[in-house]
Every structure is written in structure tokens, then in C-alpha cells.
Amino acid sequence: MGVELGWIHGVYVLFVLGIIATMILRRDTSLLCMIGIGVLGWTATSSMASAVGGLFGSFIFAITELLPTILVISIIVAMSQVLSETGINETMIKPVSSLIQTPALAFWGIGVVMMMISWFFWPSPAVALIGAVLLPAAIRVGLPAIGVAVAMNLFGHGIALSGDFIIQGAPTLTAKAAGLPVSDVISASVPLVIVMGLVTTLTAFWYLKKDMKSGLISAKGDLSDIFHSASSDSADKLLQAGMRKWLAAAVILLFLLDVCAMFFLDLKGGDATALIGGTALLILVGITLLAHKDAGLEKVTSHLVEGFQFGFKVFGPVIPIAAFFYMGDSGFVQVYGEMLPAGSHGIVNDLGVALAHAIPLSKEIAALALTSIGVITGLDGSGFSGITLVGSLAKLFATALGTGADTLTALGQIAAIWVGGGTIIPWALIPAAAICRVDPFELARRNLYPVVIGLLVTTIVAMFLI
Questions:
Q1: Which end of the chain, N or C, is less packed with Cβ atoms under 10 Å?
Q2: 62 belongs to a structural domain
Q3: What average pLDDT does the segment 166-190 reach?
Q4: Which UniProt keywords are listed (predicted)?
């Protein structure tokens, strides 16, 4: 029998519902999360001073938990900037552009390349990394710019980001919120990511071919706007073409060696992230010093600062939200001490046990609930802002069911990131739309049906896996 629920549990549930409602209204939830942390602290301690101090303490706890993820993403973004300004990114991708001969090859080729690069560099840097070279190549063979944007969105911000198998930023956040090892969430997400990816991309390609055949969209109008984007004059001043080829090969080889090391040395979670981050840092330093010579020392610092600015800009809205949802688990004791009712195993755990005794929660209802909550949390246009919520709720539902924590966590993560990470929220997919020079609202509209169909099929598959 679980611990008897008290005011602290009611306050937590009330604020969770309020946060979900705020997300539905497309409003920012940071302030509500901060108020929730303070009210939780005041309810538990009856001390305003402790509640206010706990608010700051919760941020420290959240940042401590998130810092490895923020750090590795910042370093990778900084590295991608160096690769871009030196032209190494163009050299890395140019062999693939010669293989693009038809619109179908362009769509699937750009998609696969985007996915692979996004696994290592994340989608936002990858959009710029491949856009300048592969976009003109696709236009030349008849794939409209909107088709290129769809491919980059679905394969990068959809498949690669929702799984995040290499950098492991997303599964780290959801796993911590759900109280699971990162490897469990990644393993559970593999079949769901495959199903979601196949259904969504195949559906999107079918719609694209249908509209191209009917003449609704065409690549002809895209020609004059696109072809001027692939100049490398500034890159030639930094590195000679021969040196760029050697360095491009070295970058690819280093990351391939990282992947091999992960498999053979069984590196997972933080160890795998540290390896990728360390490699990216070495690449950043080495290429910057080679390219800028005497100014290399200052340029290394400059690129790092730009990377950190990007990292904290992306995760700034996540920290207050994560801080609140960590209060549902180990974060509360870390911040406020042993102030929960006797026998409590954490607010979320207590609620899960109570839910198990109160209603017959089926795995079908749990799967539908996690997908719906993931979609709702993604409506703010940030795929990461709500994944700590779905992790916490997945733990709650799994406790009630007695099984399926990893699958439910992975399902919620996929739903949240596919919706909010940059596929159907117009303000979230502006980078891809800008690179391809298409209307972000048109891109969101074209992605809508494939993503919705994919989520429905993936949710049904998850019901059988729980």
C-alpha cells in the first residue's frame, strides 16, 4: 500500500495541470513552474524563506543535472561553426551531392545525410551544414525547395532528434525525469523511432510526389533564389582545398572511431556523451588553430562563447520547467530535505501508486495519454521544454501499470520532439524554412498530416510493446 497522499501531492498535480493548460494556450510556462516550486516548498516547510531559497536551489539542481547535455551541445555547435567557416562542411558533403540524380534520390539522399549529420551535430547546425551544397543539387534535378525542407525537417528534427542516439541529450532528460537508465530509454525508443520515421517520411514523400505530378508544386521557381548560396571564397582564404579534404576525412574518421569505441567499450549515457564532446572540442581547437594561425587562440574562445550562447539560449526555457518536474522525484529531497510524508518515495511515485489503486489504468489509455501529453508539451515550439514532464508522467503511469516505464517514456519523448522540435510548429522550423527560402507556415502545413499519421501508428505499436 502506498503512502497517504497529502497537500503536497495535490499542489503538484494542480500545477502539472496548469502547466499543460498553459502549453495548450501556447504561452510560456517558466513563471508558472517557478511559482509551483515555491508553493511546493511553502506547503512542505511552512516557511516563506525556505520556499524562496528552495526556488534558487531547484535551479542549481536542474542546471547540475542538465549541464553535461548543455555543454556537449554547445561544443558541437561551436565546432560546426568552425567547419562551416572553413568550408570543411561543404567538402564533407560534396561527394553525396554527385549521387543525386532524380527528385526521389534527392529527397531520400538529403534526408539520410541530414539524419546522420544530425546524430552528431544536432539538426539546427546540420541544416546550415548541408543546405548550401545539397539544396542546389536537389533543385537542379527537379525536387522543389519545399521538398528539401520537408526532408531536412522530418529526418533531422524528427527522426534524429527524437531518438538522439549519439549525443543522447533528449533521452538523458527524459530518463532522469522517469528515474530510468538512459540506455533503457534509448533501447525502448529504437523500434518506435523506426516506425515513426518510416510512416512519416513515406507519407510525406507520397504527398510530395502527388503534388509534383499534379503541378501544384515545382522546382522551376526555386532556381534563381537558391544557386547563389554555395560560395566558398572566404573559406579558401582560411584553408587550401587539399587541406580541407584531409581535414574533412579526419573529422569523419574521428567520429566513426567514437561510434566504434561506444560499441566495443560499451560506453553509454554520460560516458558516450563525454567521448563525443571531447572529440568535438579537439576538432574545434585543432581546425581553428590551423585556419586562423596567429589569431587561433582568440578564435577558439570566440567560437566557444558562441556555442555557449546557443546552448543556454536553447536550454534557458528548459531549466525552470525541469526544475519543477525534478521536484516530483529526487530533486525535492535534494532541495528541501526530508520534508515529504513518512514512507514517501517521491511525489510522482506516490501518485502512481495511488492511481494504481484508484482506477484500472490500461496500457492503451497510458499510451494515448503519453502521446497526447507529448504533443501538448511540443506546442510551445521547443521539443525539449516538455520532455521532463512526459518522463515524470511516464513514471507515474508505469507505476500504476506495473510495467512499461521505458516504452512510455520513449513514446512521450518522440511525440514531444516531433511536434515541438521543428516539424509542425511554424516558429520552430524557421531555420530549415529560411535555408530553403520557403514559407514556414507552408512547411508546417505540409508536415502536419504525415506527422499526425505517424504518431497514431507509433502509439498503436507502443501499446503492443508495453
A1: N
A2: yes
A3: 89
A4: Membrane, Transmembrane, Transmembrane helix
Instruction: Give the span between the Cα atoms of 99 and 96, in whole angstroms.
Output: 5
- Count of domains for the chain: 1
In eight-state DSSP terms, residue 216 is: S
267 contact partners, CB below 8 Å, separation of at least 6: 261, 275
- Find the domain containing 11 and state its range: 7-465
Cα three-residue angle 151-157-158, rounded to 5 degrees: 80
**pTM, two decimal places:** 0.69
Considering the domain boundaries, does residue 1 fall inside one? Answer: no
Nearest to 162 by CA among 107, 118, 129: 118
19 part of a folded domain: yes
Count of residues making up the chain: 466
Distance CA 289, CA 59 (A): 36
| Helix spans in 316-403 (H) | 318-326, 330-336, 347-358, 363-378, 387-401
Q: How far apart are CA 408 and CA 394, in angstroms?
A: 5
Query: Nearest 5°: CA angle at 167, between 163 and 171?
Result: 45
Amino acid at 39: V
Mean pLDDT of the chain: 83
CB burial of 305-323 (b: ≥16 within 10 Å; e: otherwise) equals: eebbebbeebbebbbbbbb
State the burial class of residue 268 (Cβ atoms within 10 Å of its Cβ: 0-12, 13-18, 19+).
middle
Distances (CA, A) of 454 to 21, 106, 363, 379: 24, 22, 19, 17
Percent with pLDDT over 90 in the chain: 27
Please name the residue that has the C-alpha cell 503538484.
12
- C-alpha dist (Å) from residue 80 to 87, 291, 415, 435: 10, 14, 27, 16
228 has a pLDDT exceeding 50: no
Looking at residue 239, what DSSP letter applies? S
Cell of 292: 586562423
Tell whether 438 is covered by a domain. yes
Calpha distance 367→370 (Å, rounded):
5
Within 10 angstroms of residue 441's Cβ, the number of other Cβ atoms is 12
Name residue, grid cell 542546389: 136
247 grid coordinates: 581535414
CA distance 316 to 462: 31
Rounded to whole angstroms, the Cα distance separating 199 from 203 reads: 6
CB 356 within 8 A of CB 96: no
Best mean pLDDT range from 58-67, 345-354, 379-388: 58-67
